[in-house]
């Protein structure tokens, strides 16, 4: 894909078109345009996306459009992958990158990366339900109870909670085991990084300072 874009004359440096994909250029500090849109060379990219409902976190989506369709072509074609998954009907914070060690750090069960969610529920939330989530609930096919942290109820039909395990449909299953049902679910933070005010469907690069709030040490040469 990148070769074809270069051959069609879409790639330019300082206004000069470079259409030879075999040409060698110095990537350090490189700024270029692609179809007239300015870009800066980055050894690896770390992207924050506010995922809307109805998108699959897969490079080969089966029933819904993939989240890669929300990214500009230069990001999509460089092979960025989601650092974990959100169900198609779950919205909110999704990290993507082409840095393999970063993806592993975010998804490894051994890292216990905290992920914070807000769930709206079908039935009113009771203190007994919150206490069950704090103490741990036993899910089907699991041998140990799973507990949430920082559990609270912002309103009568909302649960704000943090998990560190990352099991399949974990929040929905935990809330069900506590005696309620999740109607909508949004992820609002990962590690020490909050979603912020990014609109649904929008993306942005993570800053070096934001990377420091995650359990990952970026390469010194990364940009």
Could you outline the blueprint of secondary structure elements for this entry?
Blueprint: H1 2-7, E1 11-13, E2 16-17, E3 31-34, E4 37-40, E5 46-51, E6 55-56, E7 65-66, H2 73-76, E8 81-82, E9 90-97, H3 100-107, E10 115-121, H4 127-135, E11 149-152, E12 158-163, H5 170-177, E13 182-190, E14 193-194, E15 203-205, H6 208-212
Parallel strand pairs: 6-7, 9-13
Antiparallel strand pairs: 1-2, 1-3, 3-4, 5-9, 5-15, 8-9, 10-12, 10-13, 11-12, 13-14
Q: How would you characterize the overall build of this protein?
A:
Its EC number is 5.4.99.19. GO terms for molecular function: 16S rRNA pseudouridine(516) synthase activity; RNA binding. InterPro entries: PsdUridine_s_RsuA/RluB/E/F_cat, PsdUridine_synth_cat_dom_sf, PsdUridine_synth_RsuA/RluA, PsdUridine_synth_RsuA/RluB/E/F, RsuA_PseudoU_synthase, TruA/RsuA/RluB/E/F_N. This protein has about 220 residues and is α+β, with helices and mostly antiparallel strands. The protein has 3 domains: about 1-40, no CATH class; about 45-100 and about 195-215, Pseudouridine synthase I, catalytic domain, N-terminal subdomain (Alpha-Beta Plaits, 2-Layer Sandwich); about 115-190, Alpha-Beta Plaits, CATH 3.30.70. It is built from 6 helices and 15 strands. The strands form 3 sheets. Strands 5, 8, 9, 10, 11, 12, 13, 14 and 15 form a 9-stranded mixed beta sheet that branches. A 4-stranded antiparallel beta sheet has the order 2-1-3-4. Strands 6-7 form a two-stranded parallel ribbon. A hairpin with a 7-residue loop joins strand 8 (about 80) and strand 9. The two termini are about 25 Å apart.
């Amino acid at each position: 894909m990148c070769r074809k874009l270069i051959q069609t004359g879409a790639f330019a440096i300082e206004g000069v078109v470079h259409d030879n994909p075999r040409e060698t250029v110095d990537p350090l500090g490189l700024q270029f345009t692609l179809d007239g849109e300015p870009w800066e060379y980055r050894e690896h990219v770390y992207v924050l996306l506010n995922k809307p409902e109805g998108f699959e976190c897969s490079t080969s989506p089966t029933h819904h459009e993939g989240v890669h369709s929300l990214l500009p072509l230069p990001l999509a074609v460089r092979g960025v992958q989601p650092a974990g998954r959100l169900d198609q009907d779950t919205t909110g914070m999704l990290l993507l990158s082409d840095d393999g060690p970063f993806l592993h750090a975010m998804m490894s069960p051994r890292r216990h990366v905290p992920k914070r969610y807000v769930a709206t529920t079908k039935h009113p939330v009771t203190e007994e339900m919150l206490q069950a989530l704090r103490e741990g609930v036993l899910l089907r096919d699991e041998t140990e109870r799973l507990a949430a942290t920082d559990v609270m109820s912002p309103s009568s039909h909302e649960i704000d909670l943090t998990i560190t395990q990352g099991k399949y449909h974990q929040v929905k299953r935990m809330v069900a085991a506590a005696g309620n049902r999740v109607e909508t679910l949004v992820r609002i933070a990962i590690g020490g990084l909050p979603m912020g005010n990014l609109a649904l469907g929008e993306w942005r690069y993570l800053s070096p300072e934001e990377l420091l709030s995650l359990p990952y040490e970026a390469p010194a040469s990364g940009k």
